[in-house]
Amino acid sequence: MSRFTLSAKDKAEVLRIVEALPVEEREHVAEEVDDWMKKHHVNPLMMAAQVMLSQHCSQAAISVLDSNDDWHIKFDEVLRDLLVFAGECDRSVNILVNKVA
Description:
Blueprint (H helix, E strand, L loop, with lengths): L7 H13 L2 H17 L4 H11 L4 H9 L1 H32 L1
């Protein structure tokens, strides 16, 4: 993984590339994300929410959140969407870099 900074113009170009990715490429990214999520059963977003909430709520209230399946499902949906978008951006950055090189 190389480290470099994208300009605002480059970021906009990456987003254009994301939108233009072929359906097969997007499906492949989604499959990779689904495989990752099957292997990793702990959602880091739920853990982060619990840490943040511990600063504002009682431990009892947080335990109610942790036992609520609806919230786990919502956090799983957000995590999947985030990972798919990040995967598509990663592929698009590679396309941009290879186009420039």
